[in-house]
Give the backbone structure.
Amino acid sequence: MPKALPLFAILLMFAHTAHGDEWPAQKKIILNTTESGTNLKQDLTQVPVLIRLHAGNFTHFLDMKEDGSDARFFGADEKTPLAYQIEKFDALNELALIWVQVPKLSAGKSDAIWMKYGNQNAANAQNAKAVYDANTVAVYHFEVPGAPKDQTGNMNNAAASTAESNPASIIGAGVKFNGAQKILIPASSSLKFGDTGFTFSAWIKIAAAQRDAVLFARHDGADGVSLRVDQTRAYVRITRGGKTQETPHVSELAVGVWHHLAVTGGSRAALYVDGQETAALDAATPVLTGDMIIGAAPGGGNFFSGELDELQLSNITRSADWIKAAAKGQGVDAKLVTPGEDTHSGSSDSTSYFGTILRAVTVDGWVVIALLAVMAAVSWWVMVKKFLTLRVMLEDNRRFVQAFQKLNRDPGALDRDKDENDTAEKSDFERAISGAHDHFQSSPIYRVYHVGVQELKHRFGQTDTRLTRGKILTPQAIDAIRASLDAAQVRENQKLNNLLVLLTIAISGGPFLGLLGTVVGVMITFAAIAATGDVNINAIAPGIAAALVATVAGLLVAIPALFGYNYIVSVIKNIAADMQVFIDEFISKMAEQYSADVRIGYEDASRKRAL
């Protein structure tokens, strides 16, 4: 009879699910036994199903408890609790491997179970022993290094193991055999193989072609059964009453590729590779009660070289559909289980695509997006500051040029020294914010003009030509004044171009930083797929879409910065050109007012008036 779920476990599950709001989120998990899935031909009961969760199909690891113990699983009615065991839960790397006992897998039908999570106060309700039925006599996940521990209630723990632990196997951790290692599982009453037959299943990956290597062997005196690999072909050998028989050596195994191998015994022996029967032998299995060896034969024989994971033993002959469900539900094609959308309390069953994409963004993606957000904030601050400052500069330039063109005899009349009420000490941005235009202080042309006027005052004490008669500017002095004006223009150009380098960094660095986030996100997505073996489009698409969010963020930083930068540079070029034109006009006017010819004209006019 199948092992019933213990009453206390059922009561515990119900106690924590009495109020639906205690689990604010749930996830639909589709079980597909149709032709597009595992294509089962008969119903199966009490089947342990592997649920693989990773960044591609589940984005709420951080919403769960650190060990995932707030997870609960329910039948299609969302009320019937299901026994489950967490083999691995790594919230940081966004990977979970959970075994759930499904009461019934209906042939040729798409059904579903439900996962609920998010209750930080929930107690740990997993029950590994209840995940497997009474005919499953031993299960080894190899998740913990050392001698493998049986996950069923039969306590068929390995007595010794020299196999090496492999943390990155097909289902979490596994073990490696180097051709001289083995695992010993001692005999027990529950491990007896008799009239009801037996089933051995495991995931293996051969390291290379090997000569008659023993993967699994069990003997009682002269009788025995073993699963072997000759070169790259698996076969079964049965010895009974001194007679040895073998299945055909036709079950080809690709080197370096994971395969699901299963052997059933009873009235006949059958070998399954990746869920399909590949060889059979019309020979009854002898009664076996001795020790079991993984990786070698009793008393010697060729050792196995390769990797092994998820070894399960049953004391009955499992059906072909049972083995197919294991192969198609645990391996890299994983057609049996498809995690669906997540729903939350108070929300509709459907969510926007954009929300789905954002929820799939990994931690490294959010780090890149945060950096891009800072870059965007800095670029927008620079653009706003420059826009306001240039607007005030252009207005003050216009007003100053108009006033300067009206000057007649005193070219320095528009200049004045700073006093305590002057706003010259304010920055251009402060004047732009306050709207101050006091005495053209925001005008770069005025500041160049101020330098020229100070040069004249340094030489003449004042700039009114009516009071400086008889004084002239030599060509050398005019060149010196021009040099001072040119230097002032260079300094003004430096001020105008100040901080623009931040925009160029945003323009060039934003897309590359976004591309970096995308590449890392894609790498993590494919790494998660490789670790979990879930390669369907539903697993890949969210992760790839989330990775591309970083590129979009980079472009959203760069595009506005590019437009703003081009506009600002064009305005700065115009202001620089206006300054150059003003310098030429100012020098021309100074040369005209203070040249030797002008002085001579003044003296002639004075003599005529005297006569």
User: Anything to note?
Assistant: The first helix runs from residue 7 to 15. DSSP finds eleven helices and 23 strands in the chain. The chain has a mean pLDDT of 82.
